[in-house]
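Entry for the shared binder. Reason: the reviewer on the internal report wants the predicted structure included alongside the sequence.
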Amino acid sequence: MLIFGTKGQNAILSVEHYCCDRPNPILQILYLAIIGGMYFIIIKSSFRYIPGYYLSEVHRYTAFIAVIVGVGLFVLTSFSDPGTVKADNVSAYLSAYPYDNIIFMEKQCSTCKITRPARSKHCSICDRCVARFDHHCGWMNNCIGEKNTRYFMAFLLWHFVLCLYGTVVLALILCGQLKDHKVIYILTAYYGVEDSLYSLFPHVVQWLLISYNTQILVMVFLAVVSLLLAGFFGYHACLCLTNTTTNETFKWKDYISWKKRLNEAKASSAALKGDTFADENVSGREKPPQKRHALFCCTRQKVGEKVGEVIAKKNMYDRGVLRNVFEIIIPFSARRSFLFRKSD
C-alpha cells in the first residue's frame, strides 16, 4: 500500500469489490475456457486414434454431445431463477416453509422490506432474498436455491460423469496404442524384459510419457477433477437426502456450539451454587479442599449431562428420503398448490 499510494489501494479495493462483492462473469468465462480448451486439446491430440483397437468411431460424436449437454446444464443453472422471494410470492413461501423457532425465526429483511420466510436468506452479492438458500456459486454467478438446486445437482453429476468418461476414453486410447505398436511384445522378445507387471510397468510408462505426454497430462487432470466433483456431489447429495442446505449446516453448527457454551455456563453456575450451599451447611469444621473440588466436578457433570440432553439437531424439514428428493426434483414453487397459495 505504501508503494502504490492511495490510488493503488483504491484500485485494489475496486478489483476486490468487483470480484468478491458483486455479480461478475469471471469464473463463468474461466469454466468455458477450461471445458473448451480441454475439448480442443483432446480433438487435436487424440481424435486421430478414434476409431482404435478398443474404441469405435461413435465416441467422436458421444464426446461432442456430452460436452454440449454439460455446457447446457451450466447455462441453465447460471441463468435460472434460484427462487427469488418477492412481495407477490412471500405468503406462499411462508406457508411452504414454516419457522422452526430454532435456527429460523420470523424476521423482516431490512433490504427487501418483506417478511423473510424460513430457510431463505438475503444474498448480499445478488441483492435479493432467495428461498431455501444453499449458497452463492461463483462459478454459476448465481445463487443456488429452491428452484435451481436440481439443475445444480445435475450439473455436478454430469460433469463428474463427463470427466470420468474422458479419463476412460484416453486410457483406452493409450492401451490401444500399446497393442498397435506391440510394445509389450518388443520389450519381452527383443529387449529381454521379464513378462511380468513389475518388470514391464516402468518401461511401458516411460514409452507412454515420451510418445503420448499430452494425453497422459489431460487424463490425469480429468481424473483429479472427477474425484473433486465426486466429493462435491456426494456432499450435496447427503444434504439433499436430509433436506438440509449448506447455509443451514453452518447455522446448526453455530447453534449447537452456542448451546454447548450456554450449557457449560449453566453447569458451572449450578455447581458453584451447590458447592456454596454445601459449605454453608458444614458446621464446626472446614470441608477438605479435595472433597470440595470433587463435589464441584460431580455437580457440574450431572447438571451438564442433564442440560446437554436438549442439544440436538431437530430438522423439522426432513420428511424422509423419498419426499426430500421429490422436493428437490419438483420444488414447492413448481407445484399447483404453491400457485394457488400465491394467488390467495
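Summary line for the report: The chain has a mean pLDDT of 87.
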